[in-house]
Amino acid sequence: MRKFLLLIPVFIYSNSFSRGSVDSLKTWKKGGTGALNFSQASFSNWAAGGENAISGAALFNVFAIYKKNNISWENTLDMAYSFLQTDKTALHKNDDKIDFTSKCGYKANKVFNYAGLMNFKSQFSPGYNYPNDSVMISDFLAPAHILLSTGIDYKPNENLSCFVSPVTGKITIVNNQTLADAGSYGVSEALFDTAGVMTARGKKIRYEFGALISVKFKTEIAKNITLETKADFFSNYLHNPQNIDVNWDLLLNLKVNKFISASITTTFIYDDDTPVPVFKEVAGVRTQAGTGPRTQFKEVFAVGFSYKF
């Protein structure tokens, strides 16, 4: 199952190239960027203090866009993976991302398209409650989020797209029974009787129905400096529609030369159905006080080798 899902975007992207050889060059537009970054720090008798560390990151972003007459088909695949090791922690990941989007549209006029959209998000490998690496909190397809929607796409130019859909299905998958039993990522948790005996396993899938707004924007701020951002806003009609799920990614890429670049990526997430540990500090001791919805934020800065094709 895992291998099959990973091959889906690869097949679509490779199929885009094979079809592009048959169609005219104006029909298909393809490209992408790959980057590999490393950093290392070592200290010996350093008075100011420090911790030996090594880290690495890989980024891969590709796109294939088909346009002919009134029909368009846009495919993008964003993947990232990075690791970190210090004197106090074993080798572990600190970034893990799979994000595939496919959008098919039919032109209504100069700026509006009738469109259907599919988005898949997940990660490659297990994640743990670091520094405790014995408690798994995520895995491949745990979670995975799938959006299926139809609506109107406002696209005044190649750099801006605003997709609005009043008819959107959202599927959350937690393909790990232990995490599903705990009710992770909004799925129904396992049920127990008064004696503490499990009477029903947790559900691995959760279905939602609501509205979606998806905005994508790309621009060149200055020579060799590009900004890309994508934001999704989802409201569940069936449960607390006033609580909007937000997933906002931003990439700032600075190109030094053909092979050297620097990048800053940020991710902002809010999901009312995803509990996050809540901590409190008493007399200098930090303990977990429970869980609840919280704003999640991630930032990664990387410098290294890159290649644009």
Concise structural overview:
The protein is 8% helix and 62% strand. The protein has 309 residues and is mostly beta strands.
Question: What do these coordinates show?
Answer:
With 309 residues, the chain is mainly beta. It has one domain (2-308): Outer membrane phospholipase (ompla), Chain C (Beta Barrel). The protein has two helices and 18 strands. It has helices at 2-20, 177-181; strands spanning 28-41, 53-68, 71-86, 92-107, 112-122, 127-128, 136-138, 144-157, 160-173, 191-192, 198-200, 205-222, 225-236, 245-255, 260-270, 276-282, 285-292, 296-308. A twelve-stranded antiparallel β-barrel has the order 1-2-3-4-5-8-9-12-13-14-15-18. Strands 6-7 form a two-stranded antiparallel sheet. A two-stranded antiparallel sheet has the order 10-11. A hairpin with a 7-residue loop joins strand 6 and strand 7.
Primary descriptors:
18 strands, twelve-stranded antiparallel beta barrel, 2 helices, 309 residues, disordered N terminus, mainly beta, two-stranded antiparallel sheet, Outer membrane phospholipase (ompla), Chain C
CATH topology, which one? Outer membrane phospholipase (ompla), Chain C
What structural class do you assign from the helix and strand content? Answer: mainly beta
- Spatial separation of the terminal alpha carbons: 30 Å
Total domain units: 1
Biggest sheet: strands, sense, closure? 12 strands, antiparallel, barrel
Overall outline: flat
Tell me the Rg in angstroms: 22 Å
**Low-confidence spans: pLDDT under 50, at least 5 residues?**
1-23
In the CATH hierarchy, what is the class?
Mainly Beta
